[in-house]
Hints:
The complex is a heterodimer of chains A (432) and B (291). The two termini of chain A are 24 Å apart. With 432 residues, chain A is an alpha/beta fold. In chain A, helix 19 packs antiparallel against helix 20. Chain A has 20 helices and twelve strands. Chain B is built from 14 helices and two strands. In chain B, a hairpin with a 7-residue loop joins strand 1 and strand 2. In chain B, helix 13 runs antiparallel to helix 14. At the A-B interface, helix 2, helix 6, helix 19 and helix 20 of A face helix 3, helix 6, helix 12 and helix 13 of B.
Amino acid sequence: MTHPLPMSRRTMLQNSLLGAAAFGVPAILAGCSNPADQGTPGTGGAAARGTVSVGSNASDEVPKKALQTVVQAFTQADVKINTVDHNTFQENINRYLQGRPDDVFTWFAGYRMRFFAEQGLATDISDVWQGIGADYTPAFKQAATGSDGKQYFVPFTYYPWAVFYRKSVWEEKGYAVPKTLDEFTALATKMKSDGLVPIAFADKDGWPAMGTFDIVNMRVNGYDFHISLMAGKESWTDPRVKQVFDTWRGLLEHHQPGANGRTWQEAAQSLQQKKTGMYLLGMFVAQQFPESDLDDLDFFAFPEINPQFGQDSVEAPIDGYMISAKARNVEGAKQLLKHLASAASQNVATKLDPGTLAASSKADTSGYSALQKRGAELVSQAAHISQFLDRDTRPDFASTVMIPALQRFIGKPDDIDALLKDIEAQKTNIFR
Amino acid sequence: MTRLRARRHSSRDVVVLSIGLGVAIGVNVAFIWGPTLASIVLSGTDWNGISEIRWVGVENYHDLATSYPPFWTAVRNNVLWLAFLGLVATPFGLFCAVLLDRRIRFSRLYQGALYLPVVLSLAVVGFIAQLVYSQDYGVLNAVTGRETDWLGDPSVNIWVVMVAAAWRHVGYVMIIYLAGLKAVDPALKEAAAIDGASETQAFFRVVFPTLRPINVIVLVITVIEALRAFDIVYAINKGRNGLELLSVLVTENIVGEASRIGFGSAIAVVLLVISMGFIIVYLTQLFREER
Lengths: 432, 291
């Protein structure tokens, strides 16, 4: 429902029709646990450990092909991939994991992973991590660790969020990458006088504005406060939160107006058509650029606001794999996770899906596109990696409270105090 | 007495009756009353679908009314929706039916054009509405040269979406009334005309009252359409930012990853109570007539 990457590759039609049919969905999921459909047999003739089933939300063509290709190289067991529409998969994850889940399933790092681990719906894979731990930076390991200190998740790929722009436009007008908020504002003012809408913006789907909130909060108050706020441990009426919205409100006049009625695809197209000057989004923004314009796309890290934190945090949602608590072939599943954790597998995936980066630090980056290389560099320089608002907090809080709240802020940016009071009241109800 | 005795059921009748009725009652309880009661019970709990069910009494209702801003917007929108369909779209459908009934030129063409949207599902109407209303690419802004954010501005969007919903509703109502008007005995109109009634008088005093059974059907359809409205706003922006409806909030809380089952059930119960209000009024009317 609120996940950036997959939304991107889906047409509006598919998306909403499937959403509307969500009531009928558990049956579909149940049907898919039966490893009969869409099987991708492993190439291994021995099949010593039987079959491993994988529940995949990679319903879009590119990631689907990437997973299939990666899995084909796995020889220790047969693998059956059961692909379910991305949004459907997410919306039914509760019922799926309690019903007859597949052995391995695709999921997201952060709070969203910890939540299911805490409910006892995931298998502890700390032993797998003893073998693969050296391939990951501590930040990735932390993102794969549950609240009990054990690992439940294998990071596969990720994609950073940054401010994207077209090099040709910037060269032509002589713009320079802003390092601080003041420079950022000055640049925006200059763009406006040059007839550009400075910052492309869209929040019709409810989640893109979360990216702006996250990065402004981490720049103003730092990563630790952000995560603590997401975990429900801080008050939303805290002056520090108010400062985030105040800062954002100051920037909002440079944003494309009417964001609540625009999809991110439309906003990305305005960047591509040189109507807007820059756009804060995930690397998947590139999907809206034709092949010939891709080399013209570049980005910079969101500028510093509070010198105490500088630009030390970056938002980079990690996708990966977990083993369900009800897995029938745990041993085979663990072997498969090791295979997925290998640099070789991730190289294959990032080559097929250039909107993503390999999570393993051993991955070979020489095959990366220019944009991928810059993305990897951005993340490797960051001290903290956040996952995205809807992955760093409770799903019910993200979808039923934060989406309406941020849309309300965009519509009426001057009403911050009442807004924060409302968020806090709902947070108290949800996090009790 | 003999008549009564003749009506007494044989044991075979009793078996047949209890099987027939029993199945109906069983299905009814399992698929209607069971889930309804379950919703009511769940609305008093805090449950995410995984952990233990925790009893919280009326807390969900309290939270709903005091600290869930989308709720009151949704109630307002549902009422608006009902009023708009009932007071604008339905009379307009009747008006179209009356015009078409007069066999004006090209009436077949108009009839087809007005009825066409009815074959589309509301979800599809939602997509069409986006093509028309989109701020950057919509037909409306392109033609008028405006920059209005029709779908993103919460003070405007509910109205334009209701217009889109009414586009479909008008055709639906029109075709039902048209059928009703065709069935009205022309002699009635003639008689009224001979008695010196103007056309307006003839319609309101003579024709309209004979349409009473049709009116009841149309009323029920309108109420049902208003309360079950869901797909069009869900297709447009998932029913957020000014397009909240109770049905959407129920889905949003229960079906999605959120899984606030207790809270969502409380919203569902509110929707149930509102529907019950209309159902009770309708049924009492119906039974009074039969007597």
